[in-house]
Write a structure and sequence with these properties.
The protein has one domain. The protein has four helices and no strands.
Length: 78
């Protein structure tokens, strides 16, 4: 296991939550960080978690937010 995988497993155990699609969340965070602003990435991941906790499909929710980030008018080019 990598350090990231170990960390995620430890946090899941500590918080008593189900496994997470790490790649999905990291991809979303990357797209938001590049398309909107870096500080938006962790907050968006948190909001995704709230939505999924409320019953949203993770992949559908992430796809919708990624589309929003890609269309965001303040999109950065760096």
């Amino acid at each position: 296991m990598s350090t990231l995988e170990d960390w995620i497993a430890a946090v899941r155990d500590e918080l008593h939550v189900e496994p997470v699609d790490t790649e999905l969340v990291l991809d979303l965070a990357r797209d938001v960080a590049h398309g909107v602003a870096r500080p938006a990435a962790p907050l968006t991941a948190y909001l995704l978690g709230l939505a999924v906790g409320g019953g949203a499909d993770p992949r559908a929710a992430a796809a919708a937010v990624t589309a929003l980030a890609n269309a965001w008018p303040a999109r950065r080019t760096d």
